[in-house]
Write a structure and sequence with these properties.
2 strands, 11 helices, mainly alpha, 291 residues
């Protein structure tokens, strides 16, 4: 293959857009870890079920994918609030290894429930066929919209966490849970809000993923590993850094696929993360620790 500027630009732009979607998946994972200190692998299961929900809505003629997403986001917010009250209420008190076992078990339940109800087949939504071309780079409209929604959600979440009272309270709880309690903040309520927001982000990620990629029940396991890798690379307690790390992963994956093959690209991603963590075990975007 000839590595012309247009080909390289095509891969970089496509990789950045797909990476932004990966980042959208990882942001909810990072948010709930930062506030409730829960390593929630089940987050990917929520993304998977939203993808199936949107698929059913579209194929049954009920709604357009984005309209279905507008319904799924507030619905998942409410569900997330309830999940934090019930299934996740005592998880934060568990040890890290027990958290992983518990939430990974929930992910397996969600994955195999999806396989039971929808079968093991690969599903996808048909493309509109519309594309935008500039400078020899051709991008599908669905991919551009998905990347724009992912970026918009990242900026909106960053603004919410940095500029609103509730967002600052959530950050304070994430930085120092005991100090936040002593200052009069209701850290239990803030954990519920954070879980609800993470479910809403999962709904958004599932909605935009279903428009640009194929999926199947085991896709949830793949997304869980990918989200965990992105969050570790960006920094476990930095939500916006997870988005940036997702974009970097997407671009690195695209270039690796162009130069070598998809399997080698995936192997190179994990090798790169291993090398980065040897030098910066706290991740690429370190936040100041609060004792």
């Amino acid at each position: 293959m000839e590595f012309s500027p247009s080909v390289i630009g095509q891969m970089l732009f496509t990789g950045a857009l797909m990476g932004s979607i990966y980042g959208a998946v990882a942001m909810g994972f990072s948010l709930i870890f930062g506030v409730a200190k829960i390593i929630n692998f089940a987050h990917a299961g929520v993304v998977l079920w939203v993808m199936y929900g949107v698929l059913v809505a579209v194929r049954s003629g009920v709604a357009h994918p984005y309209v279905a997403g507008l319904v799924a986001i507030p619905l998942c917010y409410v569900i997330g609030h309830g999940v934090q009250r019930t299934l996740m209420a005592r998880v934060s008190a568990m040890s890290d290894d027990m958290q992983i076992i518990y939430t990974f078990g929930l992910l397996l339940v969600l994955t195999y429930m999806a396989q039971f109800f929808f079968g093991p087949d690969v599903h996808f939504l048909p493309s509109s066929g519309l594309a935008v071309e500039f400078g020899g780079v051709v991008l599908q409209v669905e991919t551009i919209i998905a990347g724009a929604l992912a970026l918009g959600s990242a900026l909106a979440l960053h603004a919410f966490l940095s500029r609103t009272w509730l967002g600052k309270a959530i950050r304070a709880s994430a930085d120092n849970r005991r100090g936040a309690t002593l200052m009069g903040l209701d850290v239990v309520r803030l954990s519920r809000v954070a879980m609800a927001l993470s479910f809403a982000l999962a709904a958004l990620a599932g909605t935009i993923l279903v428009t640009v990629t194929t999926f199947y029940p085991l896709r949830g396991l793949e997304l869980a590993v990918l989200a965990f890798v992105i969050v570790v690379l960006g920094g476990m307690d930095n939500v916006f850094a997870s988005f940036v790390a997702g974009v970097l992963i997407g671009m690195f994956e695209a270039l690796g696929t162009l130069l070598f093959s998809p399997s080698i690209a995936h192997m190179a991603i994990y090798a790169m993360i291993f090398a980065v963590l040897l030098v910066r075990p706290q991740g690429l975007f370190r936040r100041r620790a609060t004792k």
